[in-house]
Amino acid sequence: MKALRCRECGQEYPLEARHVCEFDFGPLEVVYDYEAAKGRLTREAIEQRPHSMWRYAELLPIAGEPTVGRQVGFTPLIKADRLAARLGIRELWIKNDAVNYPTLSFKDRVVSVALSRAREMGFEVVACASTGNLANSVAANAASAGLTAFVFIPNDLEKGKVVNSLIYDANVIGIKGHYDEVNRLCAEIAGKYNWAFVNVNMRPYYAEGSKSQGFEILEQLGWKIPRHTVVPMASGSLLTKIHKSYQEAVKVGLVDEAEYSVHGAQATGCSPISTAYKEGQDFFKPVKPDTIAKSLAIGTPADGFYALKVFQETGAASDDVTDDEIREGIRLLAETEGIFAETAGGVTVGVAKKLIASGAIPADDSAVLCITGNGLKTLDAVENHAGDTKEIAPSLREFDALLDSDKELAAATK
Amino acid sequence: MPVNVRIPTPLRKLTHDEEVVETSAETIGAAIADLESRYPGIQDRLVDESGEVRRFVNVYVNEEDIRFLDNKDTALKDGDEVSIIPAIAGG
Q1: Measured between CA atoms, how close is B1 to chain A, in angstroms?
Q2: Are the beta carbons of B51 and B43 closer than 8 angstroms?
Q3: What is the pLDDT of residues A147-202, one digit of tens each?
Q4: pTM for the predicted model, two decimal places
Q5: Most CB atoms within 10 A, among A225, A359, B54, B58?
Q6: Within 13 A of A304's CA, how many CA atoms are on the CB side?
Q7: Cis-peptide, bond into residue A61, ω within 30° of zero
Q8: How far is CA A291 from CA A89, A211, A308, A317, A342, in A?
Q9: Distance (Å, rounded) from C-alpha B19 to C-alpha B16?
Q10: Rounded CA separation A158/A373 (Å)
Q11: Closest partner CB to A187 (pick from B56, B68, B89)
Q12: ipTM of the complex in this document
């Protein structure tokens, strides 16, 4: 790491807890020494390292060794032949962060970077504004690191996500409002209290953690950039960082240059970025979210502008799916690949289906779908749509009778 | 009772470290002009060349984003709370 630099005007700042430029409010990004990284971050060196996101440490923004989340990352990349057949595409891969360690979402990546960096800077209180997964990850990782955590969430989140923060003894503050209101409040709290707010004043470091998902995809594909990648979008940050990871991997010589597209997926009930894309705009209109994909319910996406630029630069598309299509996507992934994703995963599968059907992702091509969170945390969204158990007494006669009376069950025995 | 305007950290050098300043302006646009007369330079930081609020600045009146109201023409009355917040946060 060399400095923080404004993405808009180029003004540089020291490597402190600061996220926007004083002059134009543009986002600050970490500047690396790519020449130095090129010598050290070779395929051979990486392949000798432990299987975690930290095998790409030269391009992650901490000064020393990671002290929080050392085991995070290196989740499976699954070749999804059964889902590929259902979606009508030649080759399909699932990057499965539903089993990321320790809190079952990609957020463990960004949090391990943010908290390792916060410790380097001497912070003892860490905080976040969250739609749920981030709160879970900050709570768990802070607990294991002995840091005090304040997590701020909308008060209508899925029960699974609320309990998954409370259990770590974090201070959980439920805000009567949607995420954008939580976020606004947190920006004001961050200005008043000297805490490490992972997605406010620590955001330049935090957001870089998402690149590790991209680096892993490249390595797991045998050091190749996938032709198509489909990424769910809330703020748009993950999508822009996966794009950045592909660019950086080319820059330091880990992969050859290749043509690729990074597509964005949203829920129709909160689709400011995909709507702007479809209308051909380079800016988005904020919306008030109304969707079961609560983890993606950000109506004022911080990186929306940059996500739109990624579509333009990589010839990508963006689309959105309804609540019913989200549930259908969750079931499709579960039935074909045995992976139970949260609502955001249903969004990704549903949008991939649409993009393949429309030809935006050609049927004879190959694509990677980024699954970012675990279905066990959003049971509320599907519990009345997953079918019912068939109850009988512990009696063979009753089971035989059940098979006789239920054609579907009888067919399953053939 | 005037309108309170909450100033974000990156602009507090201009307001001599004041976190909250008062105005009696009747719209957001007029409030920005009023701030400029007392804290020269602040308008350029909030508004672009075409006169619109900058891409990376969010302005709220009583917790509502002015883009859901009347943008710079959003009316202000005594007792309103205006917050100016960097757009890049969260997610």
Answers
A1: 23
A2: no
A3: 999 999 999 999 999 999 999 999 999 999 999 999 999 999 998 899 999 999 99
A4: 0.96
A5: B58
A6: 28
A7: no
A8: 28, 27, 22, 21, 13
A9: 9
A10: 13
A11: B89
A12: 0.89
